[in-house]
Amino acid sequence: MNMIQSAKDQIVELTKKAYAAAAAEGLLPEGVDTPVAVEIPKDTANGDYTTTFCLAAAKAMKKSPRDVAQAITGKMDFAGTYFTGVEVAGPGFLNFRLGDKWYADVLAAVDAEQGAYGRGDGLKGKKYMVEFVSANPTGPMHMGNARGGVLGDTLSSVLDWSGAEVWREFYVNDAGNQIEKFAKSIEARYFQIIKGEDAVEFPEDGYHGDDIKELAQAFYEKHGDSYVNLDEQKRHADMARFGLDVNIPKMKSDLERYGIKFDEWFFESSLYDSGAVPEAMALLTERGYTYEKDGALWLKTAEIMRENMKREGKTDEQIDKLDLKDDVLRRANGFYTYFASDIAYHRNKFGVRGFDKVINIWGADHHGHVARLKGAVDALGLDGTNRLDIVLMQLVKLVRDGEAVRMSKRTGKTISLADLLDEIPVDACRWFFNTKPDTQMEFDLGLAVREDSENPVYYVQYAHARICSLLKALADEGCTVPAAGKVDITKATTEQERALVKELSRFPEEIRMAARDYDPSYINRYLVSLAGTFHRFYNACRIKGEADDVIAVRLKLAEATRQVLRNGMGILGVTAPEKM
User: Fold this and answer.
1) Which residues, at least 6 apart from 564, have a Cβ–Cβ distance to it below 8 Å?
2) Per DSSP, which regions of 231-387 are E strands?
């Protein structure tokens, strides 16, 4: 249950009813339909919730906001609500104060929902796909993949917690130019093993990593020199398949070690095998969005994007400055481009599998591709403008002791995801990479392994472990946690106790906003805030030696906090230790 939303809904209802009553008595004019906007003020000294309704409606009522406020407050009935009263403040704000019932119901909601506390149904009935990582299978995964993996996985979690049916997908680029380049790279290293490095020139645009040498060596150990005189097309196909059969399982195991499992690994090659790529191109042609030039098939990208920008209200002058260009879909040699297969893939997502919303997690360097792909999906009649969302994430910079880190101490090579997980605990990796996507992040390797309050994941986990130890110690002394219905909330009289209940109430709302903004780092920030609020409560509110009813409410607060910390860390894929 979202107790913040429940409180806001009650204020809307109270205000509307009071306005109607005042209008019925002739105190205010009838027929004013101003929305009741409710907020939580930064400074709650004068109230827990506030509405600006009176300021917004005053002009239509031809009265001063304070006169409107006085008329409305005189007609409010708080019986059975979460509020004890309302005050008129400033030019006409209405400030509401929460009563004991709301605080009791927050604890009751956590108690009743337990591991499901925080779940909502705002996206119920919606089918979402989140496509993320989708790393090139020609080499090891890097820091961008590490960040994208966590962002995609935790975003999927907050969408699931918001009621959506969520599908996690990895798109494997196992077709096209990069796979041919991959095969040629393995081939060159294979020939070098047999003929000597100086005898075989390595392709200038090939993949130069040591992993290619290792694949070529493994291929040689399995096949010897039997592929030297084989047909080149057959040799390339087998070498590419061999490399992919080694790399893809390694990617899967690295990601599972990282706590990430996909519902499907979707292979680009399946789009060609099924005929989906030429089928999508034929549909674009049928709809008038392609043309042929110099033997190639082109998409009228500029025309599509111009139409979309016009609908958004952009002027011809603004659009002309963008120098829009068309895109090749099928080259003169008959081979389709990566863009063509990407279009077919998204037609599959929307037209074949029927996802209501598709979210792709991409690196910021793909920024120029966003509008083109959305436009192509629009051209297919699948409403890419509204149904396809791209989350662009910025670069990752690794630092240690204030210095940039580019190489692994263990291997002496560029740091891969596997190298990072050898050095940094998975919990720390998942926590630190789950930052706001549109900001460049600095991953402090030293901070990630520190065991003190400066390390946020340690700080939050310590709060959870501290509560577990506290509850166990008190249980050993015969002090068990009562059910929420047995707790007398009126005994929670201190500022720290009330603040902790308010903090617990925020969790469902933070999940809702994380899903709304495609920013799961809301959960990180919330957990740090909740842990800090609990530590302040723990330091200010003694449990042992207090009266039984005070002990009961404080134990309940501690247990509720433990539950919410555990739920939040579960969303992030971070463990909730009971001892530290």
Assistant:
1) 110, 117, 118, 504, 507, 530
2) 264-267, 290-293, 296-299, 327-330, 357-363
Number of other CB atoms surrounding residue 265 within 10 Å: 15
The pLDDT value given to residue 413? 64
Residue 530 in contact with residue 568, Cβ under 8 Å? Answer: yes
Q: How far is CA 264 from CA 58, 160, 170, 361, 384, in A?
A: 56, 17, 6, 16, 22
What is the per-residue pLDDT for 412? Answer: 55
Pairing of strands 264-267, 165-172: parallel
> Which amino acid, one-letter code, is at 315?
T
Half-sphere exposure of 213 (CA within 13 A, CB side): 8
90 and 54 Cβ atoms separated by less than 8 Å: no
Q: What is the DSSP string of 36-73?
A: --EE--S-GGG-SEEE-HHHHHHHHHTS-HHHHHHHHH
CB 343 within 8 A of CB 373: yes
Structure token pair of residue 440 = 């460049």
Is residue 42 a contact partner of residue 547, using CB atoms and an 8 Å limit? no
Instruction: Report whether 305 contacts 277 (CB < 8 A).
Output: no
Distance CA 31, CA 60 (A): 9
- What are the residues facing 118 on neighbouring strands? none
Q: How many residues does the chain have?
A: 580
**Rounded-to-integer distance, Cα 331 and Cα 334, Å:** 5
d(CA 481, CA 478): 10
Q: How far is CA 71 from CA 30, 97, 152, in A?
A: 13, 19, 50
Residue 253: which residues within 8 A CB-CB, separation 6 or more?
none
At residue 358, the 3 state secondary structure works out as strand
Q: Can you give the pLDDT at residue 322?
A: 86
Contact 220, 190 (CB under 8 A): yes
Please report the pLDDT score of residue 318 as a whole number: 87
The owner of tokens 């709301």 is 102
Instruction: Report how far residue 428's alpha carbon sits from residue 426's, in angstroms, rounded to the nearest whole number.
Output: 5
**pLDDT by 10-residue block (mean), the chain, 580 residues:** 95 97 96 95 89 95 96 95 95 96 97 97 97 93 91 98 98 93 97 95 92 96 95 96 96 96 97 97 97 97 92 87 92 95 98 98 92 96 96 90 74 78 94 91 91 95 96 91 94 95 97 97 98 96 91 96 98 96
pLDDT at residue 132, rounded to an integer: 97
